[in-house]
């Protein structure tokens, strides 16, 4: 068995400093680079990872909101995770990611909130059913991503509806994508990777307008609908991802997304607000 760490685990490597409880340091990963900064899903996973590694953690994640104030620059960064309220069954966290500026100041790049909970066995039911889909092996895998977008190479993506437009002709169409996806290098699913996978969908405005306009996520919220046992059952299998835009208005739009296991379990849902430019 290989002892080489998975690229995602290397990207999420955090070191708990002795400055204060919940203070971590890390370094950006070239494996998950996205033009001007890290892939946003990796940044979200880092924020969540700081909570998961906190010594005062209660339970497992149920909600994660990440606000991208600025792109992380290449190199070292600091994360501070703080438990601001702990109740009997829920725990509320704030997370900040900062980097040193060239002039000696501290730059705030990311803020986040996390809610964890000590779940208990109760009545459970899914009202949203998994869409019909072909078998993953029956769908062609997309080729390696363009130069400067290394993170795409870290995922095996098999879209069967709503792929990247073949022609950027400005035609108006639907904004829904359906895709099978998993890590390109096999890795068992966990909460951090599920958070990252919730952000693998390209901006819906590109599909809706068939126009390659500048766009970037401003804020994303992911809800987790599983526990550790359900994640273990998924293992290294494919996830079915569905994403669609909802409202495009004056430079911003929101897009919803769902991630399902091959067996039809709804694992996570997300919603994000995205900036776009003409």
UniProtKB/TrEMBL annotation:
Residues 30-114 form the Acyl-CoA thioesterase-like N-terminal HotDog domain. Residues 141-275 form the Acyl-CoA thioesterase-like C-terminal domain. This is Thioesterase family protein. It comes from Acidovorax cavernicola. The lineage of its organism: Bacteria, Pseudomonadati, Pseudomonadota, Betaproteobacteria, Burkholderiales.
